[in-house]
DNA sequence: CTGAAAGCGCTTACAG
DNA sequence: CTGAAAGCGCTTACAG
């Protein structure tokens, strides 16, 4: 039982506390806690369970997250950190994460300016929330070195970084190679590449796999024909506009972009410049965003399973948080090329 | 000073606590708290301030968010609730919110299945995190009635709901009227409308303003020519495919969609069906997403200032959280029509 | 099966 | 200007 004054005080604050539930049910707060957390097995009588349940629903009691977190040493918050969180690709990833995490965990997104990772100080502030777990999207080694997070971590789309933590990867190399082969088949011999400034592993692999396979097919991608911009339609459009005259002169007939968002910018600017697509210039991207089917022309893209990525990563993290071992700490999801009109009329 | 055992225990957990800082600086935890929170004015000697600062940086101390929140009664988390959070429109809103909130507050997104508001139970769980404030996007009255949140709240894009809380609105009606006038000018007399299933106020206003102005211009929008889907390219495409034969027979020559995302679906399906755009069918949307300039054909849309919406809303909330009064509790941002090829060849 | 008590890490009157 | 102490709301050994 709690003291009458204590209960009275909580009443005034408007917040329903465990003490109020305890007073109403005629038990201790310890019992309330046990019932509210479903830890009654062999520890609380049926009678008291019913009593407490009734009091909880009558009062509309919800366990206070802050008090609970402090006592447990960890909160129910899962933090998702990614340099690319406002890309529409991530909307689906987030939906997948949310679904697999269920109602017991809250999703906190670390939002940074496009393409940037949070600074060390930001991360520490996030850690001060004592997250139940951490999801890190498309990281680079440097960021992971700085991270030093205690507790469960799962990486998303982090090829080559499996040593740091369990991860769910996308086989972007496969799609990249398909794309190189497709361009070779359609007669391209000089190709430009628009990369991201992020410098994360997934982009390095996309580029590396594409360049390797391109070379194997006799396609030339000169160093001067590789540029980088943030993941932003406008930035990409501007960069392409600046580069195109030289590329055109050098005989470039195709541009591969590391994301569809980049590709939309190139598409936009190429159309403004009156470039014929795909006859004069073929364009392709990665991600296969929902808009790539309706762009003008529709965009050839390496399809990546975003929802599935979120679902799997959330599921793995949840297992980790709940103390299970992962049967498969490394998962890889398939990618594949979707050919549309921007490379093949 | 803290007891040696206490400090020793914290050392073992790996977490740097105020007690450890206090021990190192030779002061009490109260002084550490004052310094860490910048509340030293007239309360801590210069000498001790320097001592504590040194200890903080030497140890890498970060105030524990959970402990701090419990003591203060409120956390540094700002929750953003919106039925439409994975729409690319919201990516910019989120970026704006993040920027105006600054580094002192963490943004927690309540992610629900497309177009749905969180259930009452979900909201209560979020409230148990004791948020510093709440941002509610595109709400309906029912949700706000249920909400009963204590503490600062700012509504985004909530026309007609100004009575509930300070809000930042978009003058969607203005753009909607411009769109109706534009369609009338280009000769359309029978128009269909694709609405959202969400039933939120902003969509009701978009539709209402459009229908009113359309009627004033002699445009007929029959009740049977108004359909609703979730904010999803595929759902919208399917709904349009089902509706189009009847619309075509009835002489419909234009479709207005309540979001660009809906419009992309209509565009996609219309092209598959071989419908000539805009000659046979004009299509327009709301939001002016970045992809609307590159779609095929490019999409006429009512431009809404997403980044600015987030910036203003975050700014208002921050002022509220910090105890200031709002000089202008109601803000309205402009919208305007951007005409592109989907309505005008 | 049950409750009193300690403790999670911090902040804030309070007394000095 | 400073520190001891109470308190935020909960959970968890512990003793019974």
TrEMBL record, chains A, B:
Keywords: DNA-binding, Transcription, Transcription regulation. Pfam families: LacI (PF00356), Peripla_BP_3 (PF13377). CDD domains: HTH_LacI, PBP1_LacI_sugar_binding-like. It comes from the Bacteria. GO terms for molecular function: DNA-binding transcription factor activity; transcription cis-regulatory region binding. InterPro entries: HTH_LacI, LacI/GalR-like_sensor, Lambda_DNA-bd_dom_sf, Peripla_BP_I. Residues 16-72 form the HTH lacI-type domain. This is LacI family transcriptional regulator. It comes from Pseudarthrobacter sulfonivorans.
């Amino acid at each position: 039982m709690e003291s009458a004054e204590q209960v009275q005080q909580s009443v005034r604050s408007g917040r329903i506390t465990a003490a109020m539930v305890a007073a109403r049910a005629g038990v201790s707060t310890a019992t309330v806690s046990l019932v509210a957390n479903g830890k009654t097995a062999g520890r609380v009588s049926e009678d008291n369970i019913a009593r407490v349940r009734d009091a909880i629903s009558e009062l509309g009691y919800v366990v206070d997250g802050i008090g609970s977190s402090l006592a447990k040493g960890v909160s129910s918050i899962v933090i998702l950190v990614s340099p690319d969180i406002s890309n529409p690709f991530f909307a689906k990833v987030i939906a997948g994460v949310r679904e697999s995490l269920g109602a017991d965990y809250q999703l906190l997104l670390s939002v940074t300016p496009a393409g940037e990772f949070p600074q060390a100080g930001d991360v520490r502030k996030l850690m001060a929330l004592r997250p139940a777990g951490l999801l890190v999207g498309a990281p680079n080694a440097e960021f992971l070195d700085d991270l030093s997070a205690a507790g469960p971590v799962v990486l998303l789309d982090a090829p080559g970084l499996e040593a740091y933590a369990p991860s769910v990867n996308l086989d972007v190399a496969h799609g990249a190679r398909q794309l190189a082969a497709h361009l070779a088949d359609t007669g391209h011999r000089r190709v430009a590449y628009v990369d991201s400034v992020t410098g994360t592993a997934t982009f390095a692999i996309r580029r590396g796999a594409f360049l390797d396979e391109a070379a194997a097919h006799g396609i030339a991608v000169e160093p001067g024909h590789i540029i980088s911009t943030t993941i932003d339609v406008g930035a990409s459009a501007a960069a392409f506009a600046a580069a195109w005259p030289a590329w055109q002169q050098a005989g470039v007939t195709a541009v591969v972009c590391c994301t569809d968002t980049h590709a939309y910018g190139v598409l936009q600017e190429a159309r403004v410049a009156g470039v014929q697509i795909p006859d004069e210039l073929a364009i392709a991207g990665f991600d296969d965003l929902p808009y790539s089917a309706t762009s003008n022309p529709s965009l050839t893209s390496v399809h990546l399973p975003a929802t599935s990525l979120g679902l799997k990563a959330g599921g793995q993290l949840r297992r980790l948080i709940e103390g299970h071992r992962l049967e498969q700490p490394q998962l890889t999801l398939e990618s594949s090329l979707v050919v549309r009109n921007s490379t093949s009329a």
